[in-house]
């Protein structure tokens, strides 16, 4: 049995919703409003992205990674709680292998934390919201 | 986990769990999603690499990531489940 056409369709719907969600964030950015959603990060925009704010968190994920899916709501919530202070991004490692290789990402989810454009922490694996919040606060 | 097909992958996962004294995650949705990820990786890369690990294309780095991965038992001992959550403590 192969992955069904229905599965592929569901994944396509999820991709479209995520894209729409992140486009909203981009529009907020363009309008100069505080960003309260994770933005899409790619190999192409990575260098610019990590310098867009003093503190930047990049969630490295993939569609089929269950812990990534479980942690996604926590990332969305953190983007709301730290709006205007920390910029959050999501990098799909399947579609952006150069960045994954550059930071030697072997397991996902991995959160990369950048302060003033420099990597200061790398968190591998599913973590609860309160733990992530405390770690991020310590870098503010 | 060399066999193909979701049903086949499930059988292999059940056998691995039995042999190693662990269990499949009691949440069937998680098991289903991970098995689909394994199947996708098998179709894409030729082997059922863990969908929660990054396939680099470097064989010596990637081989330990084939499910059941090299870190499975260590993760279960430490966290009560493997990194991806397919297997949990028995």
Radius of gyration of chain A: 15 Å
* Proportion of residues in helical segments of chain A: 40-55%
Determine the CATH topology of chain B.
Answer: Ferredoxin Thioredoxin Reductase
Helix-strand makeup class of chain B: mainly alpha
| Share of helical residues of chain B | 40-55%
Along the chain, the helix and strand elements of chain B come as HEHHHE
Can you summarize the main beta sheet of chain B? 2 strands, antiparallel
Distance between the termini of chain A: 49 Å
Uncertain segments of chain B are none
Strand content of chain A: 15-25%
CATH top level label of chain B:
Alpha Beta
Numbering strands along the chain, what is their spatial order in the largest sheet of chain B? 1-2
Gross geometry of chain B: globular
Task: Let me know the number of strands of chain A.
Answer: 5
Give the spatial strand order of the biggest sheet of chain A: 1-3-2-4-5
Q: What's the order of the H and E elements of chain A?
A: HEHEHEHEEH
Would you kindly provide a written description of the structure presented here, covering whatever features stand out?
The complex is a heterodimer of chains A (140) and B (90). The mean pLDDT of chain A is 88. In chain A, strands 1-3-2-4-5 form a five-stranded mixed sheet. Chain A is 45% helix and 21% strand. The termini of chain A are far apart. Chain A is built from five helices and five strands; from the N terminus they run αβαβαβαββα. Chain B has a single domain (3-89), classed as Ferredoxin thioredoxin reductase catalytic beta subunit (Ferredoxin Thioredoxin Reductase, Alpha-Beta Complex), CATH 3.90.460.10. Chain A binds chain B through residues 1-3, 7, 62, 64-69, 93, 100-101, 105-109, 125-126, and chain B through 5-7, 30, 33-34, 36-37, 39-41, 43, 51-54, 56, 61, 65, 83-85.
Features:
heterodimer; A: 140 residues; alpha/beta; 5-stranded mixed beta sheet; 5 strands; 45% helix; globular; B: 90 residues; mainly alpha; Ferredoxin Thioredoxin Reductase; two-stranded antiparallel sheet
């Amino acid at each position: 049995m192969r992955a069904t056409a229905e599965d592929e369709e569901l994944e396509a719907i999820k991709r479209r919703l995520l894209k729409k969600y992140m486009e909203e964030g981009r529009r907020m950015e363009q309008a100069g409003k505080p960003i309260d959603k994770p933005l899409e990060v790619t190999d192409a925009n990575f260098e610019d992205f990590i310098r867009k704010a003093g503190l930047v968190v990049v969630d490295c994920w993939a569609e089929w990674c269950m812990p990534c899916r479980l942690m996604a709501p926590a990332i969305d919530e953190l983007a709301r709680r730290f709006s205007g202070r920390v910029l959050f991004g999501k990098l799909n490692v399947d579609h952006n292998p150069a960045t994954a290789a550059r930071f030697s990402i072997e397991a996902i989810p991995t959160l990369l934390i950048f302060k003033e454009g420099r990597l200061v922490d790398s968190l591998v694996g599913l973590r609860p919201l309160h733990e992530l919040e405390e770690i991020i606060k310590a870098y503010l | 986990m060399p066999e193909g097909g979701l049903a086949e992958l499930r059988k292999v996962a059940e056998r691995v769990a039995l042999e190693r004294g662990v269990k499949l995650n009691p949440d069937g949705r998680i098991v289903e999603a991970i098995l689909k990820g394994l199947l996708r990786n098998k179709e894409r890369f030729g082997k059922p690499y863990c969908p929660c690990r990054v396939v680099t294309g470097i064989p010596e780095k990637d081989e330990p990531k084939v499910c059941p991965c090299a870190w499975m038992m260590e993760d279960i001992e430490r966290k009560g489940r493997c990194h991806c959550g397919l297997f949990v403590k028995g």
